[in-house]
Design a protein that fits this description.
Blueprint: E1 7-9, E2 21-23, E3 27-30, H1 37-44, H2 47-50, H3 61-80, E4 87-92, E5 98-107, E6 113-120, H4 129-144, E7 149-154, H5 159-167, E8 171-179, E9 182-190, H6 191-197
Antiparallel strand pairs: 1-2, 2-3, 3-4, 4-5, 5-6, 7-9, 8-9
Helix pairs in contact: 1-3, 4-5
């Protein structure tokens, strides 16, 4: 997605930790707010949503809410601390509903590389939101943050996520990596390759 097809704006109103807001045709990508917790916890309670994520579905409502809050706080802290970027809350413009998280995070556990990650509510699957948001996040990473590379990590059996990374321009690398206790496929995209493809 080129800079002409997305808008990159400073956030308006109260934003925990500041951070950028990015707008696409159908999505608003913004830092999480305190009132996002209930919707975010509700989607994390769905087994199909958490199936391919390391944390998995929480065993109880209270534990799920605790994990959701911890996630939101971790994302907020990423925006507040160096290098100053993290995942956004994904807001569907038409409904105004929070329907997941998506964005970039620094992986200190993996050579300080920057990962594109996302999780969307199963209620919005099949609408192309993951690909739309992924392309916007990649553009933000290369245009605004001036990153040299963005990676994606995915379980080999998660073909839907692999397709999202491929549509964002990433290329599958040989072999599997062990990270977060999982064997994952590595996708990579460099800024120069992205510029040429864009």
């Amino acid at each position: 997605m080129s800079s002409r097809s997305m808008r990159n704006t400073r956030p308006r109103g109260e934003r925990p930790g500041g951070g950028e807001t990015v707008e696409t045709e159908r999505l608003l990508l913004r830092p999480f707010l305190a009132h996002d917790l209930e919707a975010y916890a509700a989607m994390r309670a769905k087994p199909e949503v958490m199936r391919f994520l390391p944390s998995g579905t929480a065993p109880s409502v209270a534990e799920n809410r605790r994990r959701a809050l911890a996630n939101i706080q971790a994302f907020q802290e990423m925006w507040e601390q160096a290098p100053g970027y993290g995942p956004w809350a994904v807001v569907e413009k038409e409904s105004g509903c929070v329907c997941g998280h998506l964005g970039l995070r620094l992986l200190e556990e993996f050579e300080d590389r920057t990962e594109l990650l996302y999780m969307l509510d199963s209620a919005v699957w099949g609408r192309g939101y993951a690909s739309e948001g992924a392309r916007a996040a990649v553009a933000f990473g290369f245009e605004t943050l001036k990153l040299a590379e963005i990676i994606g990590l995915v379980l080999p059996e998660n073909r839907a996520s692999s397709r999202v990374l491929e549509k964002a321009g990433m290329r599958l690398q040989p072999g599997l990596l062990k990270i977060f206790g999982l064997d994952v496929a590595l996708y990579t995209l460099g800024r120069e390759d992205w510029r040429h493809s864009a």
